[in-house]
């Protein structure tokens, strides 16, 4: 079972590719939602408001057939910008990433082949300048229990090295944990001996 994926650790440094007077500025961002993507696109369009083309591609999702992606040519000839950028996302096998390439026209047309090469190369430079990291795919579980089971629950959490995301201690107790996908079955089994402890996926 594959339970890891590759992404970029943080926003990459700006890169610049030049061809026949045209300038291509490239940016890569780690993203986890479409709202993140919109914010970064607005940020780039504001900082490069005199550029004619803000082309981009993004991919969200960590496998299990739930991958979403989009490629946008933003006025360039069809499939000369967005798809070459997306091709590099696939080539580097990264996800939860947005790459934006901003073009300033230099007066000389590059042709279809020249455009594809320029957008592909700029996207490649973006990812080469990025810090690519591997993350685990985690499932989240809610553990509900009474105070008397607190020691048992905390012991299992510690033994299995589970990440606590939130906890609420009122009349009864609720703890949300994230467990690496490949280790989830085993971790849940450890709670089964405490029959008053309920664990459900969230």
From TrEMBL:
It holds the Pfam family Impact_N. It comes from the Bacteria. Gene3D superfamilies: Impact, N-terminal domain. This is YigZ family protein. Transmembrane segments: none annotated. Belongs to the IMPACT family. It comes from Galbibacter pacificus. SUPFAM superfamilies: Ribosomal protein S5 domain 2-like. Residues 20-127 form the Impact N-terminal domain.
């Amino acid at each position: 079972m594959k339970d890891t994926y590759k992404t970029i650790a943080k926003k990459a440094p700006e890169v610049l590719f030049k061809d026949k007077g045209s300038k291509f500025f490239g940016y890569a961002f780690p993203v986890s939602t479409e709202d993140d993507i919109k914010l970064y696109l607005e940020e780039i369009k504001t900082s490069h408001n005199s550029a004619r083309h803000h082309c981009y591609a993004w991919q969200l999702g960590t496998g299990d057939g739930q991958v979403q992606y989009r490629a946008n040519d933003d006025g360039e000839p069809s499939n000369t910008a967005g798809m070459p950028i997306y091709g590099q996302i696939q080539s580097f096998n990264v996800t939860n990433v947005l790459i934006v390439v901003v073009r300033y026209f230099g007066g000389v047309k590059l042709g279809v082949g020249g455009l594809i090469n320029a957008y592909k190369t700029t996207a490649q430079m973006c990812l080469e300048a990025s810090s690519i990291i591997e993350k685990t795919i985690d499932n989240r579980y809610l553990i509900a229990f009474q105070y008397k089971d607190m020691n048992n629950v905390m012991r299992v959490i510690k033994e299995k090295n589970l990440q606590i995301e939130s906890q609420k201690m009122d009349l009864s107790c609720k703890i949300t944990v994230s467990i690496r996908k490949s280790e989830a079955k085993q971790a849940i089994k450890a709670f089964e001996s405490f029959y008053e402890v309920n664990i459900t996926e969230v």
